[in-house]
């Protein structure tokens, strides 16, 4: 996925057209920071994409564009805003 070597590479995706502004690619932490689409649009994408890829969403707050999820041996959190959204993943 996008040149990453760590993380749930076959299960996690970013939407087409996402603008990546930063990233961390380590065995114990993978983070993707995006400036587009908006936090609300990215949260909507992950509400659909995560369960389809084998992740279970355990908390989801549309008012703040935050969610937590787990699956495929990883746990994750999404925190979004209009300007920047980050998805961080760690091994479970």
Automatic annotation (TrEMBL):
It comes from the Bacteria. This is Uncharacterized protein. It comes from Microlunatus ginsengisoli.
């Amino acid at each position: 996925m996008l040149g990453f070597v760590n993380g749930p590479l076959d299960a996690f995706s970013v939407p087409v057209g996402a603008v990546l502004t930063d990233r961390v690619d380590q065995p114990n932490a993978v983070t993707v920071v995006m400036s587009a689409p908006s936090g609300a649009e990215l949260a909507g994408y992950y509400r659909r994409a995560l369960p389809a890829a084998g992740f279970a969403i355990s908390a989801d707050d549309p008012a703040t564009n935050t969610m937590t999820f787990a699956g495929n041996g990883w746990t994750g959190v999404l925190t979004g805003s209009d300007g920047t959204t980050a998805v961080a993943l760690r091994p479970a």
